[in-house]
From TrEMBL, chain A:
Keywords: ATP-binding, Cytoplasm, Fatty acid biosynthesis, Fatty acid metabolism, Ligase, Lipid biosynthesis, Lipid metabolism, Metal-binding, Nucleotide-binding, Transferase, Zinc, Zinc-finger. It catalyses: N(6)-carboxybiotinyl-L-lysyl-[protein] + acetyl-CoA = N(6)-biotinyl-L-lysyl-[protein] + malonyl-CoA. The lineage of its organism: Bacteria, Pseudomonadati, Pseudomonadota, Gammaproteobacteria, Cellvibrionales. Its cofactor is Zn(2+). One of its GO terms (cellular component) is acetate CoA-transferase complex. GO terms for biological process: fatty acid biosynthetic process; malonyl-CoA biosynthetic process. This is Acetyl-coenzyme A carboxylase carboxyl transferase subunit beta. It is found in: Cytoplasm.
Length: 287, 331
């Protein structure tokens, strides 16, 4: 390294440090829709919904359950179900390494968190997809945890609520992933036969194998405002039909218009709305 | 430039090839051409030529056996998509009698990518539902290349529920490049249509036997693929995403489809090991299309046995076993 390089790097380093100290990392967040720069603590108080344009930002599985369930009496279900690379799948990277990386990045072991808890005092089982983990894709762990959660709901005759956010089935688990569609649909059908309510809330985005199974089998199917959900992604459809898709295609409002969902529920009303529905299904009153 | 599956358009190289044979089968094509040539020459009853022909035929058989004994997953995918591979309608014609095709989903229309109806298998009434790709170009267009829309899956569901009422076993034949990814498909709820089939098939109170006869692509295949018995023909293929789609996502190029096919394990050998497929049904030498009658005889025999075995169970036992099996996927 020449004397000039030394000086230059030092200057640069010093400079970056100064910038960092002035603006603590992550205090501000830009809304992806309206580009408004938002003060993070305020945004969090607003449940990660942009106060300027009402854009419902993506949130993690734990935060989702945290803002949905009552604070007390939460028990996680199926945390002991862990991913196994049955196919020893390898592309440019090993699937095993991809899993380790995703676990490090998200702090989750896989893409679904399931909990038994209370919603306004009413016992419920709630599950949420972690989109940041491998695109929220459904492999064995997601299918198995969902199934175990549904079985708890079935045994205890308490409602099941699912928040989906996913790209679909997980390629790296190939047919094992595909079969999770059959498995989760089968257990949902058992809930139906037993008269145990199942509410499916689609949050941005829900595609592929998850939309073609558990996400559209709710007694109530609902979506957050603006959430996109469909079987095939917009790119695939455009490539197939060779034309541009209409504006708003596959958004929650489109789904409502085409009869795929019962309603759109804003995040701030989620607890009230779901509790109100469940209370009617179970002939009880919201506390 | 290829289409979305990465198939190359015909070029001069391709024009020289015998299109009845896949690229890795060309050595067989060369031998078969020789045999054909000798046959034409040999019309003047030369004994030596007859002998020569039989020698070459033997060689061709051995060569086919040796090529087919060691197919790569990608080669199996190619055989499964062979343009001459028998489709659902070919099997229905040969395996069943007294076939009455039934049409429509009673809501929107009749999807020609799925055919269904009542027939007899060895004298016993059954419901048959199969995905159909179509042979000629106009037929392929009419059948949407075997890509069903919601009304196709809803027709299948209607027929399955009818089979339940009349206590007929349901036999499905799977062969699709996938459910149709289009605007109308989405508008009419393709996801819901597939999901509904999965749910209902898990508890349908009659035996369901599913057989992958060609290409079993993802949710579009599974939507008629939940049941008590899952068969795969030896050179059929079953995947969660097409090898081209997988390659496109991971490697950003469809050229890597062979690697994707290998990584995903798309053949019955792997899927049987994973406990997903119950039985691999052997195909004639060189694939089902080389001897459709033989293929149909084999499949018919298997289906008759499987129907007998499943019909002997009580309905509760049948459903209990089916549910347990569904719950065990991936364990």
């Amino acid at each position: 390294m020449s004397w000039l390089d030394k000086i230059v790097t030092n200057v640069v380093r010093k400079d970056t440090k100064r910038v960092e100290s002035k603006v603590p990392e992550g205090l501000w967040k830009k809304c992806l829709k309206c580009a408004a720069v938002l003060y993070r603590p305020e945004l969090e108080r607003n449940l990660d919904v942009c106060p300027k344009c009402d854009h419902h930002m993506r949130i993690g599985a734990r935060r989702r359950l945290d803002i949905f369930l009552d604070p007390q009496e939460r028990h996680e279900i199926g945390a002991d179900v862990l991913p196994v690379d049955r196919l020893k799948f390898k592309d440019v990277k090993k699937y095993k390494d991809r899993l380790t990386q995703a676990q490090k990045d998200t702090g989750e072991k896989d893409a679904l968190v399931a909990m038994k808890g209370l919603l306004k005092g009413m016992p419920v089982v709630a599950v949420a997809f972690e989109f940041a983990f491998h695109g929220g894709s459904m492999g064995y762990v997601v299918g198995e945890r969902f199934t175990r959660a549904a079985q708890v709901a079935l045994e205890e005759k308490i409602p099941l609520v699912c928040f989906s956010a996913t790209g679909g089935a997980r390629m790296q688990e190939a047919l094992i992933s595909l079969m999770q569609m059959a498995k989760t649909s089968a257990v949902i059908e058992r809930l139906k036969m037993a008269g145990v309510p199942y509410i499916s809330i689609m949050t941005d985005p829900v595609y592929g194998g998850v939309s073609a199974s558990l996400a559209l089998l709710g007694d109530i199917n609902a979506a957050e405002p603006g959430a996109r959900a469909g079987f095939a992604g917009p790119n695939i459809i455009e490539q197939t039909i060779r034309q541009k898709l209409p504006k708003g295609f596959q958004r929650a409002e489109f789904l409502l218009e085409h009869g795929a969902i019962d309603m759109i529920i804003a995040r701030e009303n989620m607890r009230d709305k779901v509790a109100g529905l469940l209370a009617k299904f179970t002939n009880s009153k919201v506390a | 430039m290829g289409d979305k599956r990465g198939r190359k358009p015909p070029n001069q190289e391709l024009a020289k090839m015998n299109l009845n044979y896949l690229d890795f089968e060309q050595p067989i094509a060369v031998l078969e051409a020789k045999i054909e040539e000798l046959r034409l020459v040999g019309s003047d009853n030369d004994l030596n030529i007859t002998e020569e022909i039989s020698k070459l035929q033997d060689k061709s058989r051995k060569l086919t056996a040796s090529i087919y004994s060691d197919l790569s997953p990608w080669q199996v995918v190619q055989v499964a998509r062979h343009p001459q591979r028998p489709y659902s309608s070919d099997y229905i014609k040969r395996i069943f009698t007294d076939w009455d095709e039934l049409h429509g989903d009673r809501h929107f229309g009749d999807d020609h990518a799925i055919i269904g109806g009542v027939a007899r298998l060895d004298g016993k009434p059954v419901m048959v539902i199969g995905e159909e790709k179509g042979r000629s170009v106009p037929e392929k267009v009419m059948r949407n290349f075997g890509m069903p829309k919601p009304e196709g899956y809803r027709k299948a569901l209607r027929l399955m529920e009818m089979a339940e009422r009349f206590k007929m076993p349901v036999l499905t034949l799977i062969d699709t490049p996938g459910a149709y990814p289009g605007i109308d498909s989405e508008e009419r709820g393709i996801s819901e249509a597939i999901a509904q089939n999965l749910a209902v098939m898990s508890r349908l109170r009659t035996p369901i036997i599913c057989t992958v006869i060609g290409e079993g692509s993802s949710g579009g295949a599974l939507a008629i693929g939940v049941g008590d018995q899952l068969n795969m023909l030896q050179y059929s293929t079953y995947f969660v995403i097409s090898p081209e789609g997988c390659a496109n996502i991971i490697w950003k190029t469809v050229e890597k489809a062979p690697d994707a096919a290998k990584a995903m394990g798309v053949t019955s050998t792997v899927l049987e090991e994973l406990g997903i497929v119950d039985e691999t049904i052997p195909e004639p030498l060189g694939g089902a299309h080389r001897n459709i009658d033989e293929m149909c005889m084999t499949l018919q025999g298997k289906l008759v046995d499987q129907v007998d075995r499943l019909c002997a169970l009580s309905t509760d036992e049948l459903l209990d076993t089916r549910y347990k099996r569904l719950m065990s996927y991936g364990n």
